[in-house]
Amino acid sequence: MAASKPVEPHSGSGFPRWQLALLVGTPIVLGVGAVYLWKRNKTKNTPGKSNGERTTPEGSANPASGQPSGNGRKLSPLDRAQGAKNKGNKYFKAGKYEQAIHCYTEAIGLCPRENQTDLSTFYQNRAAAYEQQMKWTEVVQDCTQAVVINPRYIKALFRRAKALERLDNKKECLEDVTAVCILEAFQNQQSMLLADKVLKLLGKEKAKDQYKNRDPLMPSPQFIKSYFSSFTDDIISQPLQKGEKKDEDKDNEGEAAEVTESSGYLKAKQYMEEENYDKIISECTKEVESEGRYTAEALLLRATFYLLIGNATGAQPDLDRVINMEDANVKLRANALIKRGSMYMQQQQPMMSTQDFNMAAEIDTRNADVYHHRGQLKILLDQVEEAVGDFDECILLRPDSALAQAQKCFALYRQAYTGNSQSQVQTAMDGFEDITRRFPKCAEGYALYAQALTDQQQFGKADEMYNKCIDLEPDNATTYVHKGLLQLQWKQDLDLGLDLISKAIEIDNKCDFAYETMGTIEVQRGNLEKAIDMFNKAINLAKSEMEMAHLYSLCDAAYAQTEVARKYGLKPPTL
C-alpha cells in the first residue's frame, strides 16, 4: 500500500501507543515504526482490584446512632461525623442518594478540621452520591475538596476525571487520569482505558483543526524516491523516454533532435529526474489547464504529489477524474485506484479502500502493484491469509519482486508469531534467510528480517541486518532509528541509541519517525520539555491527519505529565 511507513505487526503488549509517552517498564513493539525499549517486567492487573468500578462510598455501612455509647461516654464530634457518614452509606447502598447526600453533608459539617483524612473521605463519598445523580459539576467540586486535602487520593482523582469527561473538559480530565495511572503503576485497566479514550479524542480534535490549516510540506527526496520505488507498473514514475525528452537534452546525448510539443507534464517529469520536486505540481497544472496530450498523466502526477505533501483534499478530485477516464491507459487508472485506496485507508475508511483495490484488480488483472499494495492493506486489516494470496499473485507476475517476497515472508512471520506457533515462526525465519540470500540488494528484506530477529531476541544478528540496510541505503534515516532502538533493547545503551537517532535527523531533518522516537525516549528519561519539542516537530511533518492525531496524543500525554508533576509531585520511573 502506498503509505508513509511500511506495514508491521501490532504491539504484543496490549498497551495503546500513547503509553509510550507515559509507561516505563514494557518493551513496546510497533514493527517497522517500532519503538523498542529494553525489557523490564510488564505490569499486570491484580485480580479483583485492577478492573473494579469505583462506585461505592468508603467506610462501614453500619449506621451509628449518633447517641451516647453504651458505656455512657458522650460521642465526640468525629464519632458523630462517622455516624452520619455510616448512615449515608446505608442510604447510598439502598439507592436513596438525596438522603445519602444529606448525611454526608452533615458529616462534613461535624468533622473537626484537623481530621483531614476523614474529611476528605466525606467529600469523596458525597461526590459518589452526586455522581449517581449525574450532577457532574457538584462531583468535580467535592472531589476537588477531597484532593486539596489529600492530593494522592486515587478514588477522588478518578471520580473527578470521569466527571470532567462528562463536562467535556478533556485537558483536566487527562491530567487527573494521568495522575491515577501513575499512582496505580499502570495496573488498573479502567483508568488506562479512560486515558486512552481521552487522548484519542484530544488528538483527533487538534489534528482536525491543525491539519487542514497546515502549510504544505514536501517530504525529503529520500522519502519521495522510496515512495515511488514501491511501484513497478507506474507510468508517471518512469524515466523520460527518448521521444519525450527536450531537444537540448537529446542533442547533448548525441541523438537526433525530435521536436515535441511544449508540455507542462514533460517539464514536470524532467523536474522529477532532477529532484526539483517543488515545481512539479505547478507544471502539471499547466498541462491540465491547457488540456494537453498528457492530461491524464498530469492529473495523476499532481494527485500523487498532493498526497505526498499531505493534501488529500486536493488529490481526490484528480484521482477521481483519472479513474473515470475510460479511454485513459488502464495502468494510469489502476495506479489512481491504488493511491485513492491507500488514501482511504489513511482516513480510516477500510471498506472504501478495499473497493478501490478490488476495482483496480478487475480492470488491470496483470498489474503486480495492485496485488502488492492490496496485500499490505490486508495485513493492516488482519487478513493475513488473503494478504499472502495477494503477495503470491504479485510474485507470479513479477518473480523478481524482492519487496513482495520479503513482505509475504513478514506476513507469514506475523501470523506465526501472534499464533504462538514456534515451528511456523522458524519456517518464516528460514524464509527470510532465503530471501536475503537470493536478493542481497533488497534493503527492505534485511529490515523486515531484523524486526523478526528482534522479536526473537536475536539482537546480534538483528544488528547485522540493520548494518546491511545501511550499507545499501546509507541515506535511509529510518534504518538508523531502528538500529538506535535496538541498542536500547539489546545493550541498554541509551547514549548510542540517541546518537543513532540523532544521526537519522542529521541525514533527513524531515524524518517525523525520528522526532517521534526521540520524544518518546525523552519522556522515558523524564525530559518532558524536550520530549514535547520533539513531538511538535513530528506533528509539523505528519503526512496524514490520522498520523497527526497520534502524535498529538503523545504530546498531550507528555504535557499532562508535566502538569501532574507540577501539581502533585508525581512522576513515573525514568530510564
Automatic annotation (TrEMBL):
Segments of this protein annotated with the region Disordered: 42-82, 239-261
Keyword Zinc: no
Location, primary (coarse class): mitochondrion
Gene Ontology molecular functions: mitochondrion targeting sequence binding; protein transmembrane transporter activity
TPR repeats: 81-114, 368-401, 443-476, 512-545
Superkingdom as given in the UniProt entry: Eukaryota
UniProt GO BP: protein import into mitochondrial matrix; protein insertion into mitochondrial inner membrane
Protein's recorded name: Mitochondrial import receptor subunit TOM70
Organism of this sequence: Salmo trutta (Brown trout)
